[in-house]
# Entry
Amino acid sequence: MGRASKRKQAPDGSARHREKRRKMFEDIRLATVGFGLFWPPPDKREPVIVGTGIAIKRPRVILTAAHVLEGLRKEAKTEKGTAAVFTVDSATSSRQEVELSYAVTAITQSLENQQYDVAVVSIERGGFPSRQMAVGYDLAPQEGDQVVTCGWPHGIKLYKGKTVISTFLQGPVSAVIPHPVAAAALRDSYTIQMPVNPGNSGGGVIEVASGKVFGIVMGVYGTTGLATVSPLARCRDMIENAGLDSQGGKR
# Structure
């Protein structure tokens, strides 16, 4: 009998697909940020995440929903806290527990499109996600196409670095407004079949097939299990001008 080959076999198509999908989900998780409040010392209140955002491949730029920033400003004034971006980017594990680390960066600059409920936050310094997602301005998902989002449903408190973990939701596109034949730049919104909650607002919506962000979670239809997504194609100029100085160079 011949000697069995010791050469490692190349992974089959399904294994490669699983690995590619796993990598995409990891990128999404590490590009996802929380929006919330923190209180500098001597105030001992724990920071709170109330909304979501996603880092994109622009110079230190994060996308979220305009209403997330508006709500944060009001709450910061009422609670005398600081509106901030929370970057959850690493973890260490022992047999007893997992310690998650996060960076907190105050929000200093933003651009907002109230009509489509999209906001662009430029982070000039401080913590920033290690991964960023590409934006698919020309993507035109159809009904039935699978999309995914990551965020903090119902928000979450940060307590000793132990409870800062985001949640994935995946589902199909249910409707394209005004019509599925409309080009990406002419679409006003999408309806997706996902049980999102208020803390998911501002999260990036990614087309599974391409791994690119095409929209931002805007809201939810009551208890129907459907959510509204704002198209990034409608805000392309605002997004592409973010992170640039007055001469068009990177900040």
